[in-house]
Amino acid sequence: MSECVNWLLGRGLSIACNLPWAVPSELLKLPRTEKIEQIKVRLREEMNSPNVNCAVIKRFLYLLSTHTQPNWRNRFITTNWDNLLQREIQALNLEVLPAWMANSHVFHLNGTVEELEDNSNRSPFLLEEDPASQRCFTPEANIAYNQMLWDRTFIVVGMSFECDTDKFLLSALNRAEDDLPIGESVWVVVNRNRNALDVSCARIAKALPRATVKSVHSDFDAWQESGMKELQDCGAIAF
To answer: Which of 1, 8, 57, 153 makes a 20 to 30 Å CA pair with 223?
Structure first.
């Protein structure tokens, strides 16, 4: 049976692509529906800015495609609204799913600015200030969550699980940790911000007390350049 690396990607990935976009203050007082529409318009504009450089994502996908070991696969899960990673995967022009991928779809837990012909199965667009009760389990979120429960290897990049909508994921995993492999999983947390790194590690450890949590104080690009030792150690990749 193959094993899977679950990549939980937060703003750290977007920042590495020179997309440090945050909701402008002038949008904060808008009604929720109008705010979401404005966020989508403005974030799409920012994604198409010439300042955005996805070299980090291109290198990331190249490293996984060339160094993921047999019987290991990769799944991509994000709390970001942007779809930079999905665009780069689509740019690979895959005709069949390669052995190193568990899915070619990037699971967006908090919604996305990407517009498809049918978005009915996608996660709803969630704002940082939304209560956890605003989340509903759509097919997209259900698939990601149910697959995560059976896996043991997780890489967290640039996520602090600070807002209620992100804390909800850890709470949901906590409810299943006694009975499923997720309870004894290994989490590698990568963040260049020391405070955010410590907070993320503490929250994961609290939600999954039997899990192993490894802290990597580094930006994502530098960690890739260094050879991602933690993934080498578990046998997921080799150089």
So the answer is: 1
Are the C-beta atoms of residues 14 and 87 closer than 8 Å to each other?
Answer: no
Amino acid at position 225, single letter = E
Given a contact cutoff of 8 angstroms between Cβ atoms, the answer to whether 61 and 93 are in contact is no
Q: What is the pLDDT of residue 159?
A: 86
Residue-wise pLDDT tens digits, 194-235: 999 999 999 999 999 999 999 999 999 999 999 999 999 999
Task: Read off the amino acid at residue 229.
Answer: K
Q: Give whole-number Cα distances, 86 to 66, 134, 144, 229, in Å.
A: 19, 25, 15, 25
Q: Are 125 and 34 in contact (CB under 8 A)?
A: no
What domains does the chain contain, in order, with CATH numbers? 3-21+54-233 (3.40.50.1220)
Tell me the two tokens of residue 192: 């260049």
